[in-house]
Amino acid sequence: MVFPEQNQLLNALPPAERERIFPHLRPVTLPLGTVLYESGDTQRYIYFPIDAIVSLLYVLRNGASAEIAVVGKDGAIGIALFMGGATTTNRAIVQSAGCAYRLTRKRIEQEFGRHGEMLHVLLRYTQALITQMAQTAVCNRHHSVDQQLCRWLLLSLDRLTGNKLVMTQELIANMLGVRREGVTEAAGKLQKAGVIEYRRGKITVLDRARLESMSCECYDVVRKETDRLFPLPAAAA
Amino acid sequence: MVFPEQNQLLNALPPAERERIFPHLRPVTLPLGTVLYESGDTQRYIYFPIDAIVSLLYVLRNGASAEIAVVGKDGAIGIALFMGGATTTNRAIVQSAGCAYRLTRKRIEQEFGRHGEMLHVLLRYTQALITQMAQTAVCNRHHSVDQQLCRWLLLSLDRLTGNKLVMTQELIANMLGVRREGVTEAAGKLQKAGVIEYRRGKITVLDRARLESMSCECYDVVRKETDRLFPLPAAAA
DNA sequence: GGCTATCCGTTCGGTAGCGAACGCAGCTTG
DNA sequence: CAAGCTGCGTTCGCTACCGAACGGATAGCC
Questions:
Q1: Is B207 helix (H, G, I), strand (E, B) or coil?
Q2: Which of A15, A148, B195, B202 has a C-alpha 20 to 30 A away from that of B152?
Q3: Distance of alpha carbon A165 from alpha carbon A184, whole angstroms
Q4: Could you give the C-alpha distances from A63 to A60, A106, A167, B72, B215, in angstroms and in order?
Q5: What one-character DSSP code corresponds to residue A89?
Q6: Given a cut of 80, is residue B6 above it in pLDDT?
Q7: How far is CA A16 from the centre of its chain?
Q8: Which nucleotide is nearest to A198 (CA to C1')?
Q9: What is the pTM of this model?
Q10: Which band of pLDDT confidence, cut at 50, 70 and 90, is reported for residue A93?
């Protein structure tokens, strides 16, 4: 079973707001490859993933692409709805199948207009998202494919349960904005080192600690900043 | 003379809010190289540039750096103050000397809490900033130094009056996150082509149209999105 | 059981950008 | 005027990554 509280943003709401909002949440299942919105689309819903992972992907005119940010149970898709723009220049595509709750544009605008905790939660999340995007920009500039693959695997791992990912090298390459061969080579090294096991689109992470040590600092920075903005209930109490 | 209205965000405010806010604005001059805040600093002010240009720069542990976004009279520095985080993981550094107006943290929080037009303007600007950061990430991945230099010159040019920049190749290299030699080479090509004139830290843009055509699509995308979010008074009327 | 699509491994030549190093011209300073 | 610093041009070897192409293995499907 899935519950709205499994999304960390919804979970951060006080009881009164939960009661008000949760009845309007609608659960949806998101198959792999679903496009939640396309660049320039007027977005209709805001999505709160539970066990799905969604990538914000930018696609250039020549077809080349790069991932801007990853969103899972830690966040929401459809920021532009309450930022005032209604559209963005990127694409939101389901990178790992799963389910999510969604809210209509009208509802989220109403809720945002109340200036309750939902507003503050969403704004704080937006800042976390900005941090992730900034880090992605720097990472694209300065770090090797090897390092970036580690970062990417960790980001995905954090948003799933278990240590298995379902993801072809071709798709990872699209996300990282590199060639498939580059991913093959980097993944090969990780496999030889015994850090992961790769088999026809199924990745098993065997040694997470090593993966973290082989990643660039970018993963850690984003993670620490997210933890700062959204302290775990235990830490907050 | 400088006036608050020269900043496009302040200019977008209705008369009533201007009357309320403008008395609290304090003009400051920002010499080249001034650091408005450092990564992790609790930010004290929000700045609205008039003729200064500020770069949001990310500095890696090994000293390498990359620009995340450029802010001039089209925006504000200190987003984190109203997003709820108070700090960010980047540095804000003055890239072109000039002046700005600033507001204390307390004032901007008060103003934000009123839920007036200022809130909406700042959120819309935040979305424009997100667009610019996303584009920077993709640009870092896919485009050549030559193209990125053009993009960068255009971004700076838009935030200044006239066609001259004061900026060494060394500094540009830091912003773009590339070697100084790379900038020298790219600038050399532009100079040979008669597009710019470069002389000891002083750049004169001779042929802006050519510069635009030699730039990657990134400049255009960001510009169009900014225009969409902040239509000029003429277009709005 | 055979066919086919998908997914991954490997190779090869080409190139953009890196790191390091050196030199030179033009401002500034004493 | 000499000295020095700053900003720019140039060079060389090196590496990571690209583009294109091919081949093998696996899984699904009829």
A1: coil
A2: A148
A3: 16
A4: 5, 33, 20, 31, 18
A5: S
A6: yes
A7: 27
A8: C8
A9: 0.95
A10: very high
